[in-house]
Automatic annotation (TrEMBL), chain A:
Protein name (record): Fumarate reductase/succinate dehydrogenase flavoprotein subunit
Domain Fumarate reductase/succinate dehydrogenase flavoprotein-like C-terminal: 503-636
Required co-factors: FAD
Sections of the chain in a coiled coil: none
SUPFAM superfamilies to which the protein is assigned, alphabetical: FAD/NAD(P)-binding domain, Succinate dehydrogenase/fumarate reductase flavoprotein C-terminal domain, Succinate dehydrogenase/fumarate reductase flavoprotein, catalytic domain
NCBIfam families membership: PRK07573.1, sdhA_Bsu
Species, as recorded: Gaopeijia maritima
Amino acid sequence: MELNARIPSGPIEEKWDNHRFEMKLVNPANKRKYDVIIVGSGLAGASAAATMGELGYRVKVFTYHDSPRRAHSIAAQGGINAAKNYQNDGDSVFRLFYDTVKGGDFRSREANVYRLAQISLNIIDQAVAQGVPFAREYGGQLANRSFGGAQVSRTFYARGQTGQQLLLGAYQALERQVAAGTVQVDTRSEMLDLVVIDGVARGIVTRDMLSGEIRSHVADAVVLGTGGYSNVFFLSTNAKACNVTATWRAHRRGAGFANPCYTQIHPTCIPPSGDYQSKLTLMSESLRNDGRIWVPKKEGDNRPASQIPEAERDYYLERLYPSFGNLTPRDIASRRAKEMVDAGHGVGERNNGVFLDFSHAIERLGADAISERYGNLFAMYEKITGEDPYKRPMRIYPAPHYTMGGLWVDYDLMSNVPGLFVIGEANFSDHGANRLGASALMQGLADGYFVVPMTIGNYLARVKPGGVDTSHAAFADVEREAKGRMDRLLSAQGSRTVDSFHIELGRLMWNACGMARSEEGLKDALKRIPELREQFWRDVRVPGSGATLNQSLEKAGRVADFMEFAEVMCWDALTRDESAGAHYRVEHTTDEGEAKRDDENFAHAAVWEFKGVGEDPVRHTEPLDFENVQLSQRSYK
Amino acid sequence: MRLTLHVWRQASSRDTGRFETFDAPDVSEHMSFLEMLDVVNERITQEGGEPIAFEHDCREGICGSCGMVVNGRPHGPQSLTTACQLHMRSFNDGDEIWIEPWRANSFPVIKDLVVDRSPFDRIIEAGGYISVRTGSAPDGNTFPVPKQFADEAFDAATCIGCGACVAACPNASAMLFTSAKVAHLGLLPQGQTERWDRVLGMVETHDEEGFGNCTNHGACQNACPKGISVDYIARLNRDLVKATLRARPAEAKDA
């Protein structure tokens, strides 16, 4: 597997500009001769489709939703960063770049991150021009707030619904292109596989989720904007339909999968309430600005919070991290919460949470001020738990959230399979081992609006349009395989539901490859995953037929791919014999219990090559150079 | 608690539907409404039946996927609450619950509780956007937006496109949905150049898609999980009258 990141030469500030100048261009009259397929309609996919349609390419978008507007980007709450320095507090492109590289625990690629920081300026302008209703100050100027991991106010927000508003902006731009005839959107169609001809990505095979029809689609380039995979844990903050299928299928066809073990565990979710639990709900990280986190000092103390006196409470984050307190980064806050619960200090009926307490803030500022800041979150919490957070502390616990791993891409966001581009959360490029707040929306939109529409031209200018159609034998082969897989799932007629397998896999992964990982646990998981997978194919029950809307069949196909993907995730966690950001190996901690990196041996991206189901995958590396930010130990004490 | 569910089952838009009754003997008050359906579906699957098809995704009340009529009310008995955020503590032991899909000719049933809401996308296509080329936007602070307008535009923009307004309206009108977008963009300085064309295009498509007219019942506002106000419909009507009195610059749009 050849891994050439193709990072442009020159000083970091000039790389993107120089590269754009050096790119080959496609003559505007020729652009309409090129077909581009985009899979996924979230922030990355929709913005890429709208922009490429505008540029003149023939674009086809595929989404499994009934409308592009449902993509999970819509659920993002907090905000989006941009180095505008509107607050005059010393922000700059370089500072955003610096914070992101450091926040990622020095496991991301400098050149990509710098470009992201540069483009952040254009994203805000673009969104404002589209009518995204960002918060404003009384003078009519854009408002900003601060967010975890940064000491400047650079986060733009639309109440607690920033993702929704940004996605609707991109969706509306996309629908405008649909009306103009440059983009076609196929809703309710799921990508089942990638078609590679002579080593080049030339199309995809989809299933029409209403008729069950399996169809081939040819293109000159394929773009995947299909999001992350944290539903491998079954319980996560992701929407129920989020899955790994598109990227996993591309991986099976030769695309390298980079850093799959980097999964962010978000500290402020509502703890599970029972075995029927279907997903977890994130409460905004902003709550930690005023909420104080604590547990009872005494193990197994089941008294209600109001009956536990101050002296018997352990405000453990404030105790351990006096300067950052409750605002320590996500990975640290998550780990400490798990330790408290594991040591028997958990609160709530199921002893599976820690308190996030607003009583001091309410005393200091009044209930009205707190309601103005967090009212919608408090209402949401009460709706879900039936408990009033104005009267008793919230209960929170960490949950799988964003995934920093993904398909390996070069500087142009092209995978190692020519013609296959990967954008947004689906690629691995910008966040390293840890993603800071308000940076996911930024990356999705940077990739979609500003990077891939340029770099894809650089690729297309070198290839002749067309030349292959769906009558090529490769399409028939892939269609046959996809049909075979569907038939096999439908005919197994075993005794267990799809969900029961997914839940079992999720538990296994959470225990072995969740917030803390050990060599022993990972080796055990690597033994048990193939057994579970074998049992799945033998004993799964998928009711109904393949010729209509069949939600069980859709789920079954996705869980089947999680069963294979889980293995490479554990391989990655096992071979990365260090702790970095969200990847925490219990064998590698500092004396103070923090993650301990090994820069000498692991300052690289690990990229996996597929060798067959059940075969050991092969590990390749892309060394990461840090020329502009010095490697240092993160400290939040 | 123990519940009895009467669920609308319909194999396709060509099939005639009917209610089917299910026993739900082990419902916890902590479950969301959709988790309760998950549990019922697991049992149906175990017993060799076909689970109830319903739409859902984020389960955080924001994607707009989940839509079902519960005991005659879109998204169920709680106000300002989507079906995924409705919890079983809103029901009592022994309750009978009737669950149906959105009812509107413009939203044909696909299967069980799943309906086709693609007309909403086509209404947006007809002008629910601001035309701006990627990369050509001026600095974000070039146009100041008074906070009051920004907040009002935001309130309108929170529509999740779930379709509850249509399901609740005796005329199956989508005016609340359409007016929310018209108001959101019409309240902002960026949205002024296309303001009149937008309202004409969106209302025309709204009618072509078979949605009825607004006759001021207000049921849409009561059903809306995001509290979108019928005031926006009044605003839309004012803009529509103004736009009709102007010559429609159709040629300009085609240029």
